[in-house]
Description:
Strand order of the largest sheet: 3-12-13-11-10-9-8
Structural class: alpha/beta
Amino acid sequence: MNQFKEDDVVQENEGVTEPVGDGIDRRNFLGCMAWAGTGLLWSMVGGVPTSKLLAQTMKGGGTGVGKVEDFSFVQISDCHIGFNKGANPDVTGTLKKAIDRANVVPAGVKAPDFMLHTGDITQNSKAAEFDTASQVIKGFKNEVFYVPGEHDYIDDGTQYKQRFGKGTVGNGWYSYNHKGVHFVGLNNCVQVDAMGNMGEDQLKWLKSDLAGLSHSTPIVVFAHIPLWMVYEKWGWGTKDGEQALAMLKPFGSVTVLNGHIHQVVQKVEGNVAFHTAMATAFPQPAPGAAPNPGPMMVPAGKLESVLGVTKVKMVRGRSHLAVVDSTLAETV
């Protein structure tokens, strides 16, 4: 867990930097706040997600969706290609490092089956930004599945839907099955009013999508804004997220993955495990640690220690996915 001394960190808001103090590592925040690297390695074994530190992993070397088989996948989030302020003047460079990290596979370990990108691919929804992001992300060796962030919907999602929304439903939601696990990609960014929002049409679709599944089917839901209320004052939550979560409670293993808040926050409620990933672009302050959320500057040489990749693996016999957060600063 990374810790900084007081006044080491400043926040960028409309070109103004403000001291944040030493509140970056708040161990008591929901009892599970952690600063690690952006991105996750998720391990799915027997349809169940579990988590270890990626550094340790590197050193250590359901009905209706098919047979559950062991596999892993990667999550990255919040690239913000087009951002060029002091918090990170080279977001393309850190995205490339994240992709390189995602491609690292220890000897004897199978490569991740695919990658999930949980939104804010771009900063301003510009075609050139999407072009750059697509070119870098092509460096990942397997398939990539996307959901949009609010920064990808500045143009009402025109560019995003043309590039990544083909074959999706409504404003970009969809589902697919992979080796016995049911994946659901949601868009809770279209009607952002301080908080995320799913809307009635998407909720109806989700109810229908889940209706035919056995409750023993492992479920992975991925969206940009957290479905649970991380910090209401900053809009870090989805106002109708509880309706979606109520539909998921009957299932034995549910993992909900998000981005948006640029830091790792984890929570478990019954059979539902929540995990937000760090950004590949820049960190944001911990909830309440600054007047407002926004790009946060860290001391020279510290940036890569608060950015990274998440890898996820199915681990047989565990109740939740294995989530591994790896910073870009770690050596592998």
